[in-house]
Amino acid sequence: MKQSIEDWIKQFGDIPIPVMQHTIDKLTKLCAQDVPVQDLVELIETDPGLTVQLIRTCSTSMHGSLRTEVTSVQQALMIIGIEKLKTLPTTIPTIEKKLSGAAKEHLLKIFSVAYHAARQSTVWANMRRDMVPDEVTAATLLHFIGAMLMSIHAPELLDDIRDMRDREHIATEEAQYIVLGFTIDELSLEIAQRWNLPSLLLETLRAENARHPRAYTIMLAVQLARHSAWNWYTPKMQKLYEDSSEWLDQPKSIIIRETHKLAVDVARDSEFYNVNHTAALLLADYMEEVESTQTHESDEPNEKSQVGICLVPQLIELKNIVNELKSLPADTHKLKIVINLVLRGIHDGAGLNRAVFTIYDKPKNRLKAYSIMGADNDPVFGQFQISLIQKNLFSLMSTKVQAVWVSDENREKFGPLIPEQLDKIIRTNNFYCMSALLRNELFGLFYADKHTTDCQLDKNSYKYFKAVCMQGIQAIERLKKLQP
C-alpha cells in the first residue's frame, strides 16, 4: 500500500536537508573576512540544501507581531546575522558524511537541476524587470524540496519513476502518480505550507497560478531545467522554447542560444557538484538525434518525447469520493474541500488525466482556474481561463447545469464555439465540461480530458465525470454563506 503525503512528512521528521562540504568550507572562509553580503548570498544560492535550511530557520523562528515572510536569501541573512550564520553550517549534516549511493547521487542531481532552474528564472525575471529578482531565485530553489527529501528517504522510488520515464516514455508526472500516488510538486506544496515558506513558492506549486507573471516565469524555468536534464532535443523542449519566446517577446532562436549559453555557465559555476551537468548533454543529445535521424532515413526528427499513460477508472475510489461528497455537513466544510474531492474523483476515480474547476469572475465575465489536477508539468495549461464576453460554448452553458462531451465526431459543430485562446491552452479536440450553478446563477465549470490523443474518452468515463461533478455541485449548494 502506498504511503500518503502525511505519512511521508512524518517519516521525514525535522532532520535538515544535508549541505555540501564545499559550501561549508567556503562559507567559513568568507565569514572570517570582511566580504560584501552579496558574496555570501551568491555562495548560499549555489547550495539548495543550505538555502532551504536558512530560509526555513528564519521562517520558523519568528513569532507573533514580529513575524514576517522571509522571501530571499539576502533577507534571511539580515534576520539571522553573520555571527549566527557562522555557526549554522555546524548544525547541518553534510552530504559527504550523511549520504552515499543512490541517495547521494539523486540529491546532487536535484541540486544541479534546481540551481540551473534558479539561474534561468533569475535571468528571465531581470528581463521582465522584476522588482526583487532575489525572491524569484529563492522560490525556484525551494521548488525542489519534495524531490530533495524523497531522494534522501526513498531514492529507489525515484529510480522507479526515472525508469518509467526513460524506458516506457511515460510523462514524469504520471509516473510519479503511479509510483507514489501523488506528484512530487504536491508533496513540495504540503511541506512548504507547514514550514511557512514564501508565498511565491506556494504560487508556483499550484498549476492554476500560472496566470500570475512571476509564478509563470518560475514554472517555465523549472520545466526547462527538468526536461533539459533528460533530453535537450525533443518536441517538449521545442514547445518550452516557443512558450518562453512568446512570454519574453524574444525570437525563439535567441531563446535557444541564450539558454544553451546559460547552461554552460551554470555547469562551470557548479562543477563541485560532481554530477553530469545538463550542459554536457547538449552535444551528446544532439549527436544521438542526428544518428537516429540518419538511421531512420526520415525527414522527421526522432521523437523521444514523453507520452501520457492512459489512466483507467478506479471505481472503488470513485464510489468512496462520491459517498464522501454526499456526507459532507453543510456547516463544517469549505469550497476548497469540495473542489479537491471532485477533482480527485475526476482524476483518480474516473481516470481522466487533467481536471480543472474554474470559478466565475463576474466583473471580468470570465471563468478562471480555481484548482487544477494533473497538469503540474504544463505551465501553459495552468493559465486556463475562458472569456464569456463573446458568445461561445461556455456562455451557452451558463444558464443551467449541463454537461458537454466535445470530440472529433462533433468538432464541426462545437469547434466554432470554442475560444481560440482556450484551444491554444488545452491542445486537444476531446474533452468533457460541465457547468455549475448556485441559486440559479453561474458559479463555475468543471473540465476534464485525457491530455494525449493516444488515450480516448469513452461513454463510461463521461458518465463517471458527470456523476462526481453533480455530487460536487450539490455539495456546493449545501454550503452556508457561499454566494455566486
- The gross shape turns out to be globular
Radius of gyration: 23 Å
Q: Which homologous superfamily in CATH is the superfamily of the largest domain?
A: Hypothetical protein af1432
Using the 3D structure, state the CATH architecture of the largest domain.
Orthogonal Bundle
| CATH class descriptor of the largest domain | Mainly Alpha
Largest sheet: 6 strands, antiparallel
Amino-to-carboxy terminus distance: 41 Å
Low-confidence stretches at least 5 residues in length (pLDDT < 50)? 293-307
Query: How many separate domains make up the residues?
Result: 2
Enumerate how many helices there are, as a single number.
Answer: 23
The CATH topology of the largest domain: Hypothetical protein af1432
Strand content: 5-15%
Describe the protein's architecture and organization.
By secondary structure, this protein is of the alpha+beta class. The chain folds into two domains: 5-290, Hypothetical protein af1432; 315-478, 2-Layer Sandwich (Beta-Lactamase), CATH 3.30.450. It contains 23 helices and six strands. It has a six-stranded antiparallel β-sheet, with helices on one face. A hairpin with a 2-residue loop joins strand 5 (431-438) and strand 6. Helix 7 packs antiparallel against helix 8, helix 7 packs across helix 14 (213-228) and helix 9 packs across helix 12. The chain starts with a helix and ends in a 6-residue tail after the last helix. Mean pLDDT is 90; it is low at 293-307.
